[in-house]
Amino acid sequence: MAVAIAGGTFATVVGTQVSNVQIDAWQMQGTATHAAWPVWRLRIAAAFGNVAAREALADVLVSSAQLDERREGVESYRRLALDGVPAAQGTLGHLLLRGLPGIAPDYAQSRRWLSVAASHDAQAAYDLSALYRNGYGVARNPHLAIHWLEQAAQAGLPLAQFQLANEYRFGATLPHDDALALQWLTRAANAELPEANLALAIAYRNGELGMARDEDEYWAHVKETEHDLKHVSRP
Fold first, then answer.
1. Do residues 117 and 86 make contact, with C-beta atoms less than 8 angstroms apart?
2. If we measure between CA atoms, which residue out of 210, 203, 166 comes closest to residue 184?
3. Which InterPro entries does the UniProt record give (predicted)?
């Protein structure tokens, strides 16, 4: 009896008093190795209602090589989303839009959660733009696609800024505007997006976007592109 009580007390302490630093460490260990010990610790903390641990556990599970764990991870994100956890709502929409190995996309549910998250989550707004642009589970709607793309760009997402620049340069929905294209391209380049720095390099080489040809700027942005590629990270 004493052992059982002590075990229950230990589990309660682990679940309710664990620090976010510990949770982050367990999450990194679990994602990198999927060792039983950090995942077990996350499960204990999550079982006692620690929201950070629940999110960390869901993240570890969706990256698992095991299909049953990936499914459990998606379901964990679904429960978090239903509980009103903002980050989980966007992540669930993202996962359902793209699917996972062995788990098909669910565009209807993706749109549901992306629509909830898009007003406060730049990645969710970008994903919602892609959904409407490509007609994933809905009729294509270029105007809604642009609306959400602009929101993601304004919120600071470099990929959205780069794509919005291209819409002003080459798209059929927005009026052609080299000045706005250059503005958004520059913002994306300043955020170290390789595609944006490469596009600027080419623009300087060819004298595009209202700029004079400039070999020095061309090579400067080529070097920035090479630098950016060393740090590239995509959702």
1. yes
2. 166
3. Sel1-like, Sel1_AlgK, TPR-like_helical_dom_sf
What dihedral do alpha carbons 12, 13, 18, 22 form, nearest 10°?
-100
Rounded (10°) angle between helices 20-33 and 51-62:
10
What is the mean predicted confidence (pLDDT) over 150-159? 98
Phi then psi dihedrals of residue 48, to 5 deg: -95, 15
pTM greater than 0.90 (yes/no): no
> Cα separation of 116 and 93, whole Å?
9
In one letter, which amino acid is 5? I
Report pLDDT digits (tens) over 126-138: 999 999 999 999 9
- 66-111 per-position pLDDT tens digit: 999 999 999 999 999 999 999 999 999 999 999 999 999 999 999 9
Using CA atoms, how far apart are residues 3 and 196, in angstroms rounded to an integer? 61
pLDDT tens digits along 166-225: 999 999 999 999 999 999 999 999 999 999 999 999 999 999 999 999 999 999 999 999
Residue 103 DSSP code: B
- Closest residue by Cα to residue 205 from 218, 220, 188, 194: 218
CA 111 to chain centre: 15
- The SS3 of residue 148 is helix
User: Which ranges in the chain belong to alpha helices (H)?
Assistant: 2-17, 20-33, 36-47, 51-62, 67-82, 86-98, 107-117, 122-134, 142-154, 158-170, 178-190, 194-206, 215-229
